[in-house]
Amino acid sequence: MKYIYSNVCTADCRGSCRIKTKVQNGKIINITGDPIDEYTLGSLCAKGYAQMHRVYSADRITHPMKQMGKGTGNWVYISWEQVLHEIALKLIEIREKHNNLLPVCLNKYLGSMGVLSRSIDGFFNSIGYITKMVDSPCVTTGVEALNFSFGTTKKPVPEDMANAKVIIIWGGNPAWTTIHQMRYVYAAKENGATIVVIDPVLTATAARSDLYIQIKPGTDLELALGIAKILMEKNLLDKDFLNEYTHNWASFKTLLEEIDLSQVEKVTEVPVDQIRNLAHLVGKEKPMTLWLGAGVQHTIKGGHSFRAISALSAMTGNIGIAGGNIHYATYEAWEFAGAFEALKPPQKSSIDAVGNQNNENMEHRYVGTGRHSQLLSLKPPIELLWVASHNPASQAPDSKAVKKALNSIDMVVVADQFLTSTAEYADYFLPVTTQYEQEDIVVSYWHYGAAVNQKAIDPIGESKSDFEIMRALAMLLNELSPGFSSFPVGRSASEWLDLEMQPQYPKLGINEYNQLIDKYKRVNLPDIPWQDKIFSTPSGKYEFPSVFDLDKITQDDQYPFRLLRERNVSVHNSQFRNSTCVKGFSEKTSVLINRQIANSRKLEEGAIVRLYNQLGEIVLPVTLSDTVPIDVVVIHLGCDYKELLELNDLVALIDTDLGDHFSDAKGLAFNNSYVDFTRA
Amino acid sequence: MTLMQRGFLLDPNRCLGCRTCIMACAANKNLPVGIYLRTIEKQEQRIGNRILKYYLSTSCNHCNNPECFRLCPKQALKKRKDGIVLHDSLKCDGCGTCTRSCPFEAPVINNITGRMIKCDLCHDKVDEGEDPACVAACPVKALQLINIDEVDRQEDVVRRLPGVIKIQITRPSIRYKRLKSGIQVLRNTIKEGVSGYNSDEL
């Protein structure tokens, strides 16, 4: 018998693509994009189609394992019963020893965007106050920047981009990261729009643009201020918008008056006449929309750069109108009930053995995602680290420091599908199901489509969903130490989903989530944000910034080449890097070096180089390219070199300029590291 | 000479190099891991102060004079009236003559069956009036199913792009949109003042 199920990709991606899964005799035989998906129109990305093979991949781990010594590779089989028992005893021991659970750390991130992945946080909330690694090292910078300017982040629906007359894609590569959105970029172009790409590297997106500006990396703030100055000087301003709906314009204007355009040219390496052309385009063609990319965000001036770039929209009145605004991020589509979030430790545990501590005075201890070294200096120290939906040894800056931290923590638990770089430093590996093996729901943060993910097949081997793992652990803990967890273990996955979806039902026009199976439904946010021009800032208006730190030193001249990372089209950060299916057509892992530089160093195509800086070195082949400037090297990791290479061995942990006002930590400047290289 | 010749039209001004076509095909045909019937090749050339960068998506070109058809010792290949080149895997013994003779390296040996496999232009879908899987899955409609003689009259359609091998003797049934390039302001490059931003044809 053949069955067709509805699934949805749970990757941290704008698409959240709906999938149709064909199952025969309990095995997936085919997947396709779901044609009812109005954002994808039924096409997946290459990785999406490869998911089917990922489910059955030979290197997938489908039973719990215990490593006899971190990093030894000496893994032995362990039963679920035993592994949960050993972890539960550790949790109980920690609480007995410390009278609290602060030595327990949860490092959960965005490996799955499914609603049920929130059960991981829910479980830890249900046992006590712990240490949590929180916030995104990426969007916290940009979100905070826009929060200062707009009060919150809102964005248009994806298709509104087709209404623009000018699209500026600044530091992003949607051709490789957001393929479906390119349909709207092209639609705008067919309607006569000018597509501008500002990027240090001539990316696949830049290659398809009408105007490509190659900017010196890290000088986005200066270029934006240069454009703003010309808009002001040439009076290319929307006076009504400035007068009625903005705050602090006078002070921003004063700041712009001090900007020296020849200095902007010197810093950005974009000729003044080209900056003028760009300003005229921004000031004269309306509507203009902005795509703010992660490339800008990952620099030490990323936050202020976003503020300055967004000011171009405000100066020209491109806010609150069709075809305008900023296509960046919003959390508006994610109003769930928060039932997992709301779980609290049982009251019983509120009084410790001595009776001088109780939960009411306690709260979680927070450390920013990716800042693993900080875990080592905490008092009380971390004794148990639970890593779920994340591969920090590969994705956080300074991989060696992350590994050192993992290595020094008494017990590390990794819940994943594959033996990731992080899992090498685990004591226990818990096999997690893919989305095909469990029910879930994903609401897209980009197009707001809500999709049900049906359970299409039984879990492979002994795999369990994160939800089932957490629930089983809660049950066991309460058996061993009654009242340890308040997790409502009697509630099924579908009951949780129904509970979390309650606030979404009216917004989706449904009363039961299974109604989403055959219908494309969107959370009903306005197509165009800020139409009322009422902003949630203190002034109620769009707020221009007053001060910029233009003198911040960006160049570490010890190493002459700025290291930029470009996400390879066939991987999703470290996800899919082990996929043999994707490997065959993935762009190979290599370092892109400017052809002239390579010639001067006598390096030929394919030469193997040692790329190094103060943190370490990696060895990889060279690709000669004219698309990379002379002071930059670009790495895009493919599916080869899986175990041999951590790009983040060379990426320093550097704060961006914003993030800790609205969140717990600043963002991380992944694009602020410098390297040199020699033939290996 | 066939009356009609089906083929592909690739628009390099739209193709993202995203590889969706490769995997949509592989998923549709349930190909073993590592076997693909389509390739994506990045092209990068510098012409003066302009860098051309685009992607070529290529499968079996369903040639008008297919070498595979001519040379197959088992006569396992046939050409339909609409020009689609089909392969009868029951006749195939996997000798590889076709894979060596094809200028586009389109036929591949399926290591599971030991026989050749290549793009059949999803003729089952085409017969139902649907697009082939690669065409249907392209997120930006860079790839289209065409009747070759219909597009050959169009001015913006060319037979080759730089980077496409020059062999035309087999008369491959693939056409390309003429490549366009925008204005590029590259660092360390002095440019004259530019007035408009409409893409130049190359």
What do these coordinates show?
The complex is a heterodimer of chains A (680) and B (202). With 680 residues, chain A is α/β, with parallel strands linked by helices. Chain A has 20 helices and 27 strands. In chain A, α3 (118-127) runs parallel beside α16, α4 packs parallel to α13 and α7 packs parallel to α13 (302-315). The longest helix of chain A is centred in the N-terminal third of the chain and has 19 residues, at 80-98. In chain B, the strands form 5 sheets. Chain B has a 4-stranded mixed beta sheet. In chain B, strands 2-3 form a two-stranded antiparallel sheet. Chain B has helices spanning 20-28, 67-71, 97-101, 123-127, 133-137, 148-151, and strands spanning 6-10, 39-47, 50-58, 77-79, 85-87, 108-110, 115-117, 143-147, 157-158, 174-177, 180-181, 183-185, 200-201. With 202 residues, chain B is α+β, with helices and mostly antiparallel strands. Helices cover 16% and strands 26% of the residues of chain B. β10 (211-214) of chain A pairs parallel with β12 (183-185) of chain B.
Descriptive terms for the model:
heterodimer; A: 680 residues; alpha/beta; 20 helices; 27 strands; globular; B: 202 residues; alpha+beta; 4-stranded mixed β-sheet; two-stranded antiparallel sheet; 6 helices; 13 strands; disordered C terminus
Distance between the termini of chain A: 56 Å
- Rg of chain A, Cα atoms, Å: 25 Å
Oligomeric status of the shown chains? Answer: heterodimer
User: What portion of the residues of chain B fall into strands of 2 or more residues?
Assistant: 25-35%
The parts of chain B where pLDDT drops under 50 for at least 5 residues are: 189-202
Q: Which spans of chain A have pLDDT < 50 for at least 5 consecutive residues?
A: 349-357
What can be said about the biggest beta sheet of chain A? 8 strands, mixed
Report the major sheet of chain B: 4 strands, mixed
Backbone shape of chain B:
globular
> How many β strands of chain A by DSSP?
27
Radius of gyration of chain B: 19 Å
Number of helices of chain A: 20
Compute the number of strand runs of chain B.
13
Alpha-carbon distance between the two ends of chain B: 33 Å
